[in-house]
Amino acid sequence: MNSALRQHYGWNEDWPAPAKLNLFLHIVGRRADGYHLLQTVFRFLDYGDSLRFDPRNDGDILLATPLPGVPDQVHLAVRAARGLQAATGCKQGATIHLTKRLPLGGGLGGGSSDAATTLLALNHLWRTGLGTEALQKIGLALGADVPVFIHGRTAFAEGVGEKFTPVTPAPAWYLVAMPPTSVPTAEIFQSSTLRRDTDPISPANWHDGFGGNDMEPVACALYPAVARCLEALQRFGDARMSGSGACCFVAFGERHHADAALAKFRLEGPDATGFVARGVDFHPLSALDNTY
């Protein structure tokens, strides 16, 4: 392991769970089992949730910071910890402390990132020694966005979101707007108006500014707050929705331009909050390994 990471990350330390953006998101088909086939580019942000883990000798997985409306047994971080126990036969437990900054149902991958960081952290702290592919397999059972956080770098993703090709977007700062609503992913996928036949491309043909988000029209029709947010952001550039919504973003080449746009958005835009974050091409835990 990178010695700095070994020294910094341990029990009772904060472990980062970064947000992601979908720079584009196309639905190119559907499998016989109903799963949608996607093409997207995932990019991490230098902003997100954080988690801390306390050791337990009784094997229990406890969440010290419950989320309103989310039972502990379905919380993705709890499920990730239990999935790692089941896959490895580990008898250790943990108490999980979550500092939540990313909205639920926001399309920024908050729950998926929390789950991935839990897998990466506890695989290290419990010394279960699983490699990236094994952790991704556990993660995919929790949600389609979990594997990319374990993969650890910006990627063109295909399949149900688990096949990765490295890409390198231009450096960018993002104004990310968070409308006062939560969009259930399942509702978008179940919509009869969702486009499912966009022509696929080769990862080599992707470029900055390519495509759009096939889920955006459905989310805007069902949740007017998303449509209002996008309309307000369009004055600053090519505004897009991330994932299945509700959060939307615009890219800028310089931070001061993003900061200025955020200030104007807050004064003149819809009832939405926001932040500015830098796009990063590697997960902050990407150098973490399990060689002891």
Briefly say what this structure is.
The protein has 292 residues and is of the alpha+beta class.
Number of E-type strands? 10
Q: What structural class should be given to the helix and strand makeup?
A: alpha+beta
- Shape designation: globular
CATH topology: Ribosomal Protein S5, domain 2
Largest sheet: 10 strands, mixed
The helix content is 25-40%
Strand-and-helix sequence, N→C? HEEEHEHHHEEEHHHEEHE
CATH class: Alpha Beta
What brief labels describe this structure?
single chain; 292 residues; alpha+beta; Ribosomal Protein S5, domain 2
Can you walk me through this structure?
The chain is globular. By secondary structure, the protein is an alpha+beta fold. Strands 1, 2, 3, 4, 5, 6, 7, 8, 9 and 10 form a 10-stranded mixed β-sheet that branches. It has helices at residues 3-8, 76-88, 110-125, 132-140, 146-151, 185-189, 216-222, 224-233, 255-268; strands at residues 15-30, 36-56, 61-63, 93-99, 155-158, 163-166, 173-178, 240-241, 248-252, 273-280. It has a single domain (1-292), classed as Ribosomal Protein S5, domain 2 (2-Layer Sandwich).
Give the secondary structure arrangement, pairings included.
Layout (H helix, E strand, L loop, with lengths): L2 H6 L6 E16 L5 E21 L4 E3 L12 H13 L4 E7 L10 H16 L6 H9 L5 H6 L3 E4 L4 E4 L6 E6 L6 H5 L26 H7 L1 H10 L6 E2 L6 E5 L2 H14 L4 E8 L12
Parallel strand pairs: 3-4
Antiparallel strand pairs: 1-2, 2-4, 2-5, 2-10, 5-6, 7-9, 7-10, 8-9
Helix pairs in contact: 2-3, 3-4, 7-8
